[in-house]
Structure formats: structure tokens, C-alpha cells
Amino acid sequence: MSASMTGKQPDTDVELARLAAIVASTSDAIVSKDLNGIINSWNQAAERIFGYTADEIIGQPITTIIPAELQFEERGIISKIRRGERVEHFDTVRLTRDGRRIHVSITVSPVRNSSGVIVGASKIARDVTERKRSEQLQATLVNELNHRTKNLLVTVQAIAARTFVADADQGEALGRFRERLNALAISQDLLVRSGWRGAPLAEVIGSVIDAFDEAYRIRLEPGPDLHLNLGETRALAMAVHELAMNAIHHGALSTNEGLAEVSWGEADGTLTLRWAETGGPSPLSPERTGFGTAMIRDALRHELDADVDLSYPPEGFTCLIRFPARSAEAHP
Questions:
Q1: Element containing residue 121 per DSSP (H, E)
Q2: Which of 28, 139, 188, 246 is 20 to 30 A (C-alpha) from 289?
């Protein structure tokens, strides 16, 4: 009985056509090679992924696309294929025609002839470069988040240690602790919105002031809009918040007539930020340095290389913060 009468040949032709269509249309590179590693076939996806045309690469060794330090992988693959074993997909690196390194996920299966003898291998390679980049970015972000979380906890611990001192009223201390955490939260919000690249000086000051009710009468007179980096943003936000809370509890903003004004300007490479209070009770110079004063001076000196001048004239408390304008340049 002829093949045309049995229908077996047409079925085989259909299957071969279907297989050819899959090989031609898939987004994965499908490559065949003999047991010496010489390339026998190369589909369109392989051309797109590796950059070689079929005419260029067929007849060349598969090691053409394998980095020198990974050549051992091919020897291991061929050994497994000769034993009739399938190489399940694994991630590795391969070379493109222009020398770029790309991440690929590879599966290799033995190819047998009509007698069942292994004569070569069929390799499927998927470009997973973007996936690898995403994984690396995610790992970097997790490590960075871990680092920043530890730094944040250190800051919180320092605030707690300096707020809950032995002779402090615990109720008042708890209130101040919450206020300071709120200032820290404000700076964190700014940093998150900016992708942890810092924030403009005007935005830092404005965000702190906006956290208070308008009845507190804090005026903002913006100067040059410089960009602060991560550490500078956090330190300055905490300092301005501390100044505002001191004014509300003890200074000009503790009365109905008092006023606080924040302004800044630049001259001769130095930026001077001024916090000035008027209309409140006559300020008294503190007998000892409290947490707020220490935090303002220490944090700003550390992060902005700033000098802090606190004065207590009868007309109202004043704080001058001077730091090199270069400390507040834009950071990538």
C-alpha cells in the first residue's frame, strides 16, 4: 500500500511543517549542532538574539558565542548529550556578534537519527538579560533599604536616648519624642518621593513648615533653591522642626502675637539660613545644652559642615546656620 493511500506521509509532512513554523516563529533561539559542537542550524530568533545571520554562523563552532572562561560548560554539555542525557535549562552568559554579554537560559536535548543513534544536540536559548537586570536591581534596592533602615533605627535610638533622660518629665518627653519622630517622617517622605536623591532646600523647609497649623505664624522667605543630598535633607528637616517646636513650647509661637521667619541667602560661597523670632517672651539662654540644641549643632556640622550661631536678644531668639553652598549642590 502506498504512502498516499495510508495517509502516513501527509501526516508526517504536516507535523514537519508545523515544527518548522514553530522554529521560525518562536522568540527563543533554537540551534542544532553535531557532537563536535559545529552549528548545523540557526533560526531567526537566534539571529536576533546573538546578531549572527545563519549564513555567518552555520558551520562555525558553538564556542563562538561562549565566553572564554565558560568554555568548560560546552564540554560538560557534550559529555551529557553523548550519554543521552538532557541538559535542563540553566542560566549562563553568552556573547553576541558585537561582543556584548547577555544572560540566557539554556536547555539542550540529544538529537538522534532514524536508527536512534545520537548525532548531535538541539539547544533552546532564551534571552533573560532584562530579568537578570531586574533581579540585580531588586537585590541592590533590598540591600540599600536594609542599610537605610539600619541608619534610620540608629537615628531613632539617638533621639530616644537624648529625649528620655533620667530627670525629664516622662509625659513631656514622650510628646517631644513623637514630635521628633514626626520630623524624621517628614524627611523620609521627601526622600522617598525623590527616589532617595535628596530634595531642594525650599521643599525641605516648606514641608516642615506645612506640617504646622497656619495659626503658628511661621513665615517663609525663600532664597536660592539649592539641592540637598540625603543626609543634608534629613539633618536640615530635623533642625528646622526642632526650632519650630522650641518656638511653640517656649518661644515666640507660644503667644498669640509672636512670629517666626525662615529665610536664607548666599554670599561669597556661603549659604546662611536664618530663623528669627519676634513678638514673644524675652528669650532666656538655657543653662545647659538640651537635645534640640545638640542635635541642631552636631547633625548640621556633620552633614553640611555648618556653623550654628544661637542668640537670645530681648526681641527674640535667632538661629543662624552657615554652610558652604557647595554642600548643597545637586546630587545625581
A1: strand 118-127
A2: 188
Rounded to whole angstroms, the Cα distance separating 47 from 32 reads 14
Which residue's entry shows cell 522642626? 241
CB 226 within 8 Å of CB 331: no
CATH of domain 169-328: 3.30.565.10
Global model pTM greater than 0.90: no
Residue extent(s) of CATH 3.30.565.10 domains in the chain: 169-328
Q: Please name the residue that has the C-alpha cell 538574539.
A: 49
Side chain identity at 21, as an amino acid letter? Answer: A
Domain with CATH 3.30.450.20 in the chain: 3-127
What is the chain's pLDDT, residue by residue, as a tens digit (332 residues)?
444 444 444 465 555 455 555 555 578 899 999 999 999 999 999 999 999 999 999 999 999 999 999 999 999 999 999 999 999 888 999 999 999 999 999 999 999 998 999 999 999 999 998 888 888 777 766 666 565 555 555 556 655 665 565 555 566 666 666 766 776 677 777 777 767 677 899 989 888 888 776 666 899 998 988 888 888 888 888 888 889 888 888 899 988 889 999 999 999 889 999 999 999 998 888 766 665 677 778 888 888 899 999 999 999 999 999 999 865 554 43
The whole-angstrom separation of Cα 150 and Cα 271 is: 31
- At residue 225's C-alpha, the angle toward residues 297 and 294, to 5°, is 10
Q: Are 183 and 248 in contact (CB under 8 A)?
A: no
